[in-house]
């Protein structure tokens, strides 16, 4: 059996969003390094860098030193073709709920092509709707239903361990079925969709309400390919041009 490819682990980002306790950041880094993961992304951490983070990281302070600190989750997901939110709750809002082994297979398959991400929420509030809307799936650790909330770094350890077991167990991965659009390409599509729907007067300017969230959910249920995003944006541009033509014709008539 050939050795598993280290590049796959290097393409997996562990994203901690709005972490309150710096000790958890250090403990998460340790959880990652023990399992061979190295790419730590911190979105708007309350306190970082910090001596408590360093103390809990022990021999993994190199991961803290190399961590990427971002202002927004969208920034942390730039370039990633797959983002999975890790949450004990919130099954309501996402169609696809994966177990840690299923999530590991998905991430490693996609990591052959480029960066992918696992997103962990804040210690008290977990992942927000907005954060989940940037993810294409949800991972839940089946825990005691009477007390299912793991410590943040413990959750990172469970997922990192599953990823390592999956990585060790497969020398060859099937190629992903589609060339998926990256998170930022999909975000630009949503921006274009919202602008076009407003221009077509399908959506009230300034108050897109729940419609955009519903449309995001619709598209999140499928994996959009790069080519499909381009087709959809082409359709939007054609509709915008038709609308502009109609407005010009109406204005000419009024003159
Ligand atoms: N009170 C929060 C829990 C946050 S625990 C809530 O109810 O959402 C901090 C983070 O650890 C969570 O955002 C999630 O990413 C992860 N986590 C904790 N327990 C988990 C579980 N059982 N399954 C999946 N993720 C879990």
Describe the structure.
With 255 residues, the protein is α/β, with parallel strands linked by helices. It folds into two domains: 6-169, Alpha/beta knot (3-Layer(aba) Sandwich), CATH 3.40.1280.10; 183-254, Orthogonal Bundle (Helicase, Ruva Protein, domain 3). It is 48% helix and 11% strand. It is built from eleven helices and seven strands. The chain has helices at 6-10, 22-34, 51-57, 61-65, 73-76, 100-110, 129-132, 152-169, 183-199, 211-220, 226-254, and strands at 12-17, 39-43, 68-70, 82-86, 97-98, 116-120, 137-139. It has a seven-stranded parallel β-sheet. Helix 2 (22-34) packs parallel to helix 3 (51-57) and helix 9 packs parallel to helix 11 (226-254). The termini are far apart. The relative contact order is 0.14. The mean pLDDT is 91. S-adenosyl-L-homocysteine binds at residues 86-89, 120-121, 123-124, 126-127, 140-141, 143, 148-150, 152, 155.
Shape: elongated
CATH architecture of the largest domain: 3-Layer(aba) Sandwich
* Average of the residue pLDDT scores: 91
**Spatial order of the strands forming the largest sheet:** 3-2-1-6-4-7-5
Main beta sheet: 7 strands, parallel
Quick one: how many beta strands? Answer: 7
Number of domains: 2
SS-based class: alpha/beta
Helix fraction? 40-55%
Characteristics:
single chain; 11 helices; 255 residues; Alpha/beta knot; 48% helix; 7 strands; binds S-adenosyl-L-homocysteine; alpha/beta; Helicase, Ruva Protein, domain 3
Topology diagram in text:
Layout lengths: L5 H5 L1 E6 L4 H13 L4 E5 L7 H7 L3 H5 L2 E3 L2 H4 L5 E5 L10 E2 L1 H11 L5 E5 L8 H4 L4 E3 L12 H18 L13 H17 L11 H10 L5 H29 L1
């Amino acid at each position: 059996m050939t050795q598993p490819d280290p590049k796959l682990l290097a393409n997996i980002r562990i994203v901690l969003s709005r972490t309150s306790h710096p000790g958890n950041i250090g403990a998460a880094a340790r959880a990652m390094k023990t399992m061979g993961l190295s790419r730590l992304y911190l979105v708007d951490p309350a306190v970082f860098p910090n001596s408590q983070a360093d103390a809990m990281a022990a021999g993994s302070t190199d991961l803290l030193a190399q961590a990427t600190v971002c202002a927004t989750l969208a920034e942390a997901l730039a370039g990633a073709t797959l983002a999975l939110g890790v949450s004990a709750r919130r099954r309501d809002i996402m169609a696809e709920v994966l177990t840690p082994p299923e999530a590991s297979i998905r991430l490693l398959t996609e990591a052959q092509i480029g960066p992918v991400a696992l997103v962990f929420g804040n210690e008290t509030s977990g992942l927000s709707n907005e954060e989940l809307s940037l993810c294409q799936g949800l991972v839940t650790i089946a825990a005691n239903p009477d007390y299912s909330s793991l410590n943040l770094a413990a959750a990172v350890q469970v997922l990192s361990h599953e990823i390592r077991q999956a990585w060790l167990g497969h020398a060859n991965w099937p190629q992903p079925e589609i060339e998926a659009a990256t998170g930022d390409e999909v975000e630009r599509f949503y921006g274009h969709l919202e602008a076009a729907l407003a221009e077509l007067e399908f959506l009230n300017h300034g108050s897109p309400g729940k419609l955009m969230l519903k449309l995001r959910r619709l598209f999140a249920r499928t994996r959009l390919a790069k080519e499909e995003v381009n087709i959809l944006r082409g359709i939007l541009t054609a509709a915008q041009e038709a609308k502009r033509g109609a407005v010009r014709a109406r204005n000419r008539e009024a003159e």
